[in-house]
């Protein structure tokens, strides 16, 4: 092999054209190169030189697409992605024998000539004219320029690709002009380095490192002579010489490479003969990429992260910009996923479900105070096979997920927070009747919702006068619907918005941030709107952190192919309710997991916790949403085919459930996951308010709700107490007043018991 040297890039192009114009033979060479010099189009050598020099030579070298990797918060690889299977490596990590093999078969005088090899071009012209064949005369530098054009063109079926590979004089001239410029600005080593990393070697392998790993399961630095000869031969025509699909043709081509290497003295004839005598020994390793390759149970989180990169404006102002970032690859994406919490959640689900069940279990953990998603799991594995799914039920439809699910009584915490924020106390009493009318309400757009029948509890329990803590413990609908009327439907809507649950109804069916509008109906507090476990876990994480709300986040850092850190979406942590309000909600939710609550059986043993059960009509969904100071977890079961198929009388992992109540089905999964995730963590406790005494009881109506009394009630006379019947304790002090100064919460004849539209009554009809 000749010594390394840049050679002359034909010195200046003008000099080259003058030399070419000096003889008929040289003119033929230039014509063969596609330069319009003498005769063909009637130009003089001078005009040809001027025209050639006028072609721009500012070739933009591409940042080659590489694989991207997603990591969990301990640095473990979750999955790898690539638009092109390529890992760029420097020349010192490519075996010298590989470099020699490529040069000898493609451009053996590479280190002696410049951008143009006149000798090689002349030889090609003579051979082509005598044999009728087409022999290439392009140098490696010219071939590299062509590869740049092809790489920048993208899809092989695109118009840009056709333009980049067209066999025209104009393209050849442009390639030559760029090649000359490259030889003036880059060393031969740099050009060879770039060439070996950009070249396609078949079987979706781009660059020498990917090719070495695919065909031989070694790194490019470890390639042997026979292996290098195979890969060097592939470059010319990857499909024809594919050693997997066409071993005979690949062997013939490999031997041609070995012969060339012996001819030019890179190896001896004996070495060539020995290598030729061996069959091609492949050890094929097909690369695996994408969320389908994620570790067990982590595919859905992987998909969630992928969609965040593609959807969030933090990673590019436009969809096209974000897609370009993803396609370019080379990203290192560091995430919030905690492998301990993920394993705890996945094991808990697997312990209580079977992928073949008609129902699906979905669960997510969020860290209070940060919004970090710690775990995300489903009972059906990620994939397209039997009993698998690629729908991430933890993500909304705008993030390539499902539509969300009605939350049932889990939503009542929002109504409680609204009331406490307005000055209502935990001792605020309402006559919780067995059944009655939904009170009249007005939504945020000023639309009245008239009173309609239909408000009821799941049981015939005559609760009578109860306070907010008692009502939450028993998940009493006929307490929280009247409470919603008292605090104002629109105020509950606004509180839900503050907790990240959608936005006020608007003409646009989707808001700019992808959230769906909140359906404003009297059954709002019963959980008729649809949300995901991630969203609901984050709501409860806010109570765990004393009212500090943070946007959920799955990504803690991203670096691009150049190692530059990219901007991230903001967590935007801010106080949405006061600590005092959060303490009050914590107290109500603690009652749920107390001895008298609907979730008593799901209480944690060694940590202060709080939570809420929720079951929607017909047992379509069952929820358990709870938290400690360190972790909030929301777990939900549903039949994905609801409302056509409910969970009434369902078999789950071989166990029959007449009713899939929240405490009975998701509750045990929640408890097991939380016990495992919290293992070894201290009991940091939660902040609670004082629990009020139970109110004195009076005779209560079992037919009407009689709860309005939100106007003209400064003295506790609860407003317009006519047609609601004697509601006993239904009257309350006005919104903003302080309730509970008397044992019955105020003297009232129940107010106007005309409740609103039962509307979307598919909400949480019980709290079990």
Question: Can you tell me about this structure?
Answer:
By secondary structure, the protein is of the alpha+beta class. Helix content is 34%, strand content 12%. The chain is built from 23 helices and 23 strands. The strands form nine sheets. A five-stranded antiparallel sheet has the order 5-4-21-20-19. Strands 2-1-3-17 form a four-stranded mixed sheet, with helices on one face. α17 (412-421) crosses α19. The longest helix has 17 residues, at 169-185. It is elongated and about 105 Å long. The N and C termini lie far apart (82 Å).
List the helices and strands and how they pair.
Blueprint: H1 13-20, H2 24-33, H3 45-53, E1 68-71, E2 77-81, H4 96-106, H5 118-131, H6 140-153, H7 159-164, H8 169-185, H9 188-198, H10 208-216, H11 225-234, H12 247-263, H13 269-276, H14 299-311, H15 319-328, E3 332-335, H16 339-352, E4 360-366, E5 373-378, E6 392-396, E7 401-402, E8 405-406, H17 412-421, E9 430-432, E10 435-438, E11 441-442, E12 448-449, E13 452-456, E14 464-466, H18 468-474, H19 477-487, H20 489-498, E15 530-531, H21 533-544, E16 548-549, E17 555-559, E18 574-575, H22 579-592, E19 610-615, E20 621-627, E21 632-638, E22 650-652, E23 655-657, H23 666-678
Parallel strand pairs: 1-3, 6-7
Antiparallel strand pairs: 1-2, 3-17, 4-5, 4-21, 8-15, 9-14, 10-13, 11-12, 16-18, 19-20, 20-21, 22-23
């Amino acid at each position: 092999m000749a010594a390394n040297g840049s050679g002359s890039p034909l010195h200046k192009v003008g000099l080259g054209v003058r030399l070419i114009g000096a003889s008929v033979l040289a003119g033929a060479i230039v014509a063969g190169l596609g330069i319009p010099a003498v005769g063909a189009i009637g130009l003089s050598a001078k005009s040809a030189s001027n025209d050639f020099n006028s072609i721009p030579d500012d070739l933009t070298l591409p940042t080659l697409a590489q694989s991207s990797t997603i990591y969990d918060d301990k640095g473990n690889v979750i999955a790898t992605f690539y638009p092109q299977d390529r890992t760029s490596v420097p020349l010192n990590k490519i075996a010298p024998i590989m470099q020699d093999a490529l040069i000898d078969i493609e451009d053996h005088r590479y280190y002696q000539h410049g951008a143009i090899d006149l000798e090689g071009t002349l030889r090609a012209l003579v051979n082509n004219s005598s044999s009728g064949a087409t022999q290439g005369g392009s140098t490696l530098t010219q071939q590299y320029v062509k590869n740049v054009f092809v790489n920048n063109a993208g899809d092989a079926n695109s118009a840009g690709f056709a333009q980049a590979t067209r066999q025209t004089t104009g393209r050849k001239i442009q390639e030559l002009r760029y090649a000359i410029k490259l030889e003036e600005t880059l060393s031969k080593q740099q050009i060879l380095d770039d060439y070996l990393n950009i070249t396609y070697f078949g079987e979706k392998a781009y660059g020498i490192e990917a090719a070495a790993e695919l065909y031989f399961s070694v790194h490019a630095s470890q390639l042997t002579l026979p292996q290098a000869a195979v890969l060097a031969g592939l470059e010319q025509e990857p499909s024809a010489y594919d050693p997997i699909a066409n071993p005979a043709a690949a062997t013939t081509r490999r031997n041609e490479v070995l012969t060339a290497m012996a001819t030019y003295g890179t190896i001896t004839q004996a070495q060539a003969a020995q290598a030729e005598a061996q069959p091609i020994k492949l050890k094929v390793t097909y690369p695996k990429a994408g969320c389908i390759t994620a570790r067990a149970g982590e595919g859905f989180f992987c998909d969630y992260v992928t969609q965040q990169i593609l959807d969030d404006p933090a990673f590019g102002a436009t969809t096209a910009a974000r897609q370009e970032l993803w396609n370019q690859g080379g990203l290192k994406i560091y995430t919030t996923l905690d492998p301990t919490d993920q394993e705890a959640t996945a094991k808990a689900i697997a312990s209580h479900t079977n992928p073949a069940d008609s129902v699906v279990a979905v669960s997510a953990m969020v860290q209070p105070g940060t919004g970090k998603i710690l775990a995300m799991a489903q009972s059906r594995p990620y994939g397209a096979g039997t009993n698998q799914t690629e729908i991430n039920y933890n993500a909304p439809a705008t993030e390539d997920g499902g539509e969300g699910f009605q939350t049932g009584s889990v939503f009542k915490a929002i109504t409680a927070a609204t009331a406490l924020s307005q000055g209502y106390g935990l001792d605020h009493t309402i006559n919780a009747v067995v059944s009655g009318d939904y009170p009249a309400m007005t939504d945020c757009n000023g639309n009245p919702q008239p009173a309609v029948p239909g408000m009821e509890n799941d049981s015939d329990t005559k609760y009578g006068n109860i306070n907010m803590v008692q009502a939450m413990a028993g998940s009493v609908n006929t307490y929280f619907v009247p409470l919603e009327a008292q605090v104002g439907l629109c105020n509950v809507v606004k509180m839900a918005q503050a907790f990240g649950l959608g936005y006020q109804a608007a003409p646009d069916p989707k808001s700019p941030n992808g959230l769906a509008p909140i359906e404003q109906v009297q059954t709002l507090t019963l959980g008729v709107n649809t949300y995901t476990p991630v969203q609901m876990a984050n709501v409860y994480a806010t109570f765990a952190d004393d009212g500090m709300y943070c946007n959920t986040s799955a990504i803690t850092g991203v670096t691009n192919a150049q190692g530059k850190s990219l901007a991230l979406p903001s967590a935007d942590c801010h106080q949405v309710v006061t600590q005092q309000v959060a303490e009050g909600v914590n107290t109500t939710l603690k009652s749920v997991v107390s001895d008298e609550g609907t979730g008593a059986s799901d209480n944690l043993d060694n940590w202060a916790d709080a939570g809420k059960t929720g079951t929607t009509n017909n047992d379509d969904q069952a929820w358990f949403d709870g938290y400690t100071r360190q972790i909030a977890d929301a777990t939900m079961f549903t039949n994905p085919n609801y409302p056509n198929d409910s969970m009434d009388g369902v078999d789950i992992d071989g166990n029959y459930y007449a009713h899939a109540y929240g405490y009975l089905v998701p509750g045990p999964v929640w408890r097991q996951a939380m016990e495992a995730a919290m293992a070894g963590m201290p009991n940091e406790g939660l902040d609670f308010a004082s629990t009020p005494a139970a109110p004195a009881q009076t005779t209560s109506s079992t037919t009407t709700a009689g709860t309005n009394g939100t106007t003209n009630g400064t003295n506790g006379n609860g407003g317009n107490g006519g047609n609601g019947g004697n509601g006993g304790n239904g009257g309350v002090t006005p919104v903003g007043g302080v309730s509970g100064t008397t044992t019955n919460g105020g003297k009232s004849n129940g107010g106007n018991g005309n409740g609103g539209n039962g509307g979307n009554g598919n909400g949480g009809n019980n709290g079990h």
